[in-house]
Structure prediction request, 562 residues.
Amino acid sequence: MIKRLSFSFLLLAAPFLSAEAPDKPNILFISVDDLNDWISPLGGHPQSITPNFQRLASRSVLFTNAHCPAPACGPCRAAILSGIAPHQSGLYENMQPLREVMPDVTLMPRHFSNHGYHSSGSGKILHYVIDPRSWDDYFPDKEKDNPFPFTRYPDQRPVSLPRGGPWQYVETDWGPLDVTDEEFGGDFSVSQWVSKQLTNPPADKPFFLACGLYRPHEPWFVPAKYFKPFPLEKVQLPPGYRPDDLDDVPPAGRALARNRYFPHIQWHGEWRAGVQGYLASIHFADAMLGNVLDALDQSPRRNNTIVVLWSDHGWHLGEKEHWQKFTGWRACSRVPLMILAPGIKPGVCDQPVSTIDLFKTLTSLTGIQTPENVSGNDLSPLLKNPESDWPHTSLTQLRGPKAYALSGRKFRYIHYANGDEELYDIVNDGFEHTNLAGKKDYEEILMKFRSKAPKNGVPYRRAGQSAKIQNAPLVKLRKTKAPPSQKDSVQVPLSIKNSSSEHLRLFWIDQQGERKPFGKIATASNRVVPTHVGHTWVIETRSGEALGYLVIPQKGARVIIE
Prediction:
């Protein structure tokens, strides 16, 4: 059930700076990582505490049938920021670096900058990179290409869930921390930086301001006060869980669902604690959102600012016997989406939409040109009238061009690469417990969805730097003292494949021999860093153990951490 509360938009006493503020509306672009429908406006979990999500929803058009373009951070965020769908770009997985697949595409913030906006951001907007060329300003420093400010974590890990092996994501862990919000850092630091930009906007330009909140992305460590409202013995397990839920799911769906995480968590008796950690992390994210909304209410631009809040994808906590993301089911594809715009009345819309629609919608609302290569649909008609005719379905692309899900207003369809199918009545079966694909009464509906399959999908693509990377020599790390970088103008790629079971840290040694942090290399991922011949790089474990260094040779370098 959708909960809606009345909310009065307070007009504070601060004067509206009409003489300095530009005519075009500003944009506050808020991303929340790995957030499913467990917020009060969507009613996904009865114990969630999210007054600030509710606060924004009551001012906005709330889309209750919004879906992600891909159920993974990398391809989803690349699609939203570029406006190019995964089946058109060939970027389907987290392992594909954005600039390797789409080296020349203009992303949303740069497009707005090119049309007179000041584009700035903080936190995770893209997948583990900032993409410095796309922003006028960023926190942390955009040149380091690391979107994460300092975040306090426990000294000894794991805290709650023992490691099951190299297959287990090192951040699958949770627990309360005895720290304040400020001591925790992370999203608190992001919210403070964004708040300062709102209260002191650029005088001569409209702003495009992005706020990337990382929680509830794993690990679910947040200050202890956010755990207190959820006593472990009272935590309710996911409402959509059913132990026999995969009985009518075809083999391809069962194979996708049954990873090793959920049995491992159950074996160690950590299921309820994991749900507690997720609820606490959402509660924390809600408080950080509140910081930003408070600043917006005090901003001289508050009456002329479009606010968009979205998540990159949802998250399973046992539904369909699955833990994590990467699936085509509603628990993973359905995301919060709210749009507040000047002159638009608050409301609720249940038409099928996608977060890839945001690029075209924002250019429409601001009156600037939409790039020709941008896909998606303009949501403006639904903002004006949520019941407008809407002939579209929402596409969520899985791993490859022939695996996808399509969402309509009443039904959802999933198609796997081997031809397996699922069909669900989402009005009467919101948790997708009953697969209707094999029933004769639904053949006509199946045919309609089949006719809307994505056309001319491109294969998994490695373009741009891939040839240079493949030609770069495989380099072993050295254990001696790392020398200073040499000065050289020849740019080459450094590719680091992290096949280890933990995140790694990357440092550049400058020409004075000083270490400069360049962020992390996530476990089971590949990171490509532009560098120069003769530059020195150091790789460490997260605990500070030095794995070694390398000096970049003439054709760049490839490093594999086993």
Notes: The first strand starts at residue 26 and ends at 32. The chain has a mean pLDDT of 92.
